[in-house]
Amino acid sequence: MLTTLIAFLGACTLIAASPGPSTVLIIKRSLHSRRTGFLTVLGNETGVFLWGVVAAFGLTALLTASEIAYDVMRIVGAVVLVGFGIQALRQARRMKGEAEDRDPRGAGVTGWAAYRGGLLLNLANPKAAVFAMSFLPQFVPEGAPHLPAMVGLAAFWAVYEVGYYGLYVWFVGRMKAVLSRVGVRRRLEQVSGGVLLLLGVRMALDS
User: Fold this and answer.
1) pLDDT given for residue 64 in this prediction
2) Model pTM?
């Protein structure tokens, strides 16, 4: 069991370290405040846990079996990514010419909006569902009850990533003196917006 958990922890680290839409959104929200960044992390990991539970019950197999259902989720996910990208670019445009950041607490982003954004981004990604279905069963110990083991692994995965991405939030907070400058913030908003737009287009074009 210990060997399985160590291997699972290593795999979780590799997954979290792989850049993706969630990483971009977490960093983007953390630029505003640690609170909104951490709540985005909690939203994202709620999605991770929910997909793990769905996979434990075998329901994600329905998604992979239905091309229409998968495509619908893929398009919805692409729309969500493009929406976040446009939001970031509009924020960068509003900041242009400002002498200082007028809303360092989050530029109007509430705690609920940050949590909801992280959750929505994860749940709208069909690849997250398919990945959970293929990833978690590999680490169920032989002879262990399948359902409780899968749910337990999903919970462990989510909790571990809360700590991992929490380091991102902490690091961005430590860099606040530099990142709070309007010029730097605007450039980072532009970069994150562009990346989210590209990821959205890529998801829409994936077959």
Assistant:
1) 65
2) 0.79
